[in-house]
Design goal:
Helix content: 25-40%
Number of strands: 12
Number of helices: 1
Shape: elongated
CATH architecture of the largest domain: Sandwich
Radius of gyration: 44 Å
Order of helices and strands: HEEEEEEEEEEEE
Largest sheet: 6 strands, mixed
CATH topology of the largest domain: Immunoglobulin-like
């Protein structure tokens, strides 16, 4: 009987020991897993932060480079032109119109503008042109398909632009121009010139006449 009780107590002791060992193993596993998870999270967080800051630095460097190139280009451009150039004022230009038809079929009026001012100015672009008819109507002239060219005028330099049209040799033209009203590029004041003597008759209507951008005569 005593032997049975001792055996039972021994079995209970062994079971208790196994239970405690199992509990200790679980706790150890949890701690290890927790530490591993924490370490992994920290590594991921640091890596993401580094990558983000690296990207921002790269973008900043890239942007800084572009700005520098742009500013350098602008500085070089300004240096080449000698600083800011203002547009030519009508009052500083001597403007004249002449017949420059290359043949009997193509009509062309050359309108020259000479810088009579004391400073360099720009005449770049399209001049505004209206042709006045004998019946007192004023007809705005449309632009031809051409890109403006840089036209910078030092004192005494000249620029020219053209009016182009087809010549009517039938004698039945309905257009009877008397004057040309010219407004230089980027100006609001105009001058009125006489239609050049000997210029061919306009074929069609005034809407068939085109004005082309200014260019230098050099």
């Amino acid at each position: 009987m005593k032997y049975t009780r001792v055996t039972a107590l021994a079995a209970i002791g062994v079971a208790a020991t196994l239970s405690l060992t199992a509990c200790g193993g679980d706790d150890s596993g949890k701690d290890s897993s927790s530490k591993g998870s924490s370490s992994s999270s920290s590594s991921s967080s640091d890596g993401g932060s580094k990558s983000q800051h690296g990207s921002e630095a790269s973008n900043a460097k890239s942007g800084s480079g572009e700005d520098t190139k742009t500013n350098a280009g602008a500085a070089n451009s300004t240096a080449k032109t000698g600083g800011k150039v203002t547009f030519c004022k009508t009052e500083d230009l001597a403007i004249d119109a002449t017949d420059a038809a290359p043949d009997e079929a193509s009509g062309r009026i050359d309108i020259s503008m000479v810088n009579r001012g004391s400073t360099t100015c720009s005449a770049t672009g399209f001049a505004g042109v209206d042709i006045k008819d004998v019946d007192t109507t004023s007809n705005p002239i449309g632009r031809g398909q051409a890109q403006p060219r840089i036209t910078t005028l030092k004192p005494g330099d000249a620029a020219v632009f053209n009016l182009a049209y087809d010549i009517d040799n039938t004698g039945d033209s309905l257009a009877h121009p008397t004057n040309i009203q010219v407004t230089p590029p980027n100006e609001t004041h105009s001058v009125t010139l006489e239609w050049p003597a000997g210029a061919g008759d306009i074929k069609g209507a005034y809407t068939d006449v085109e004005v082309y951008p200014t260019h230098t005569t050099k």
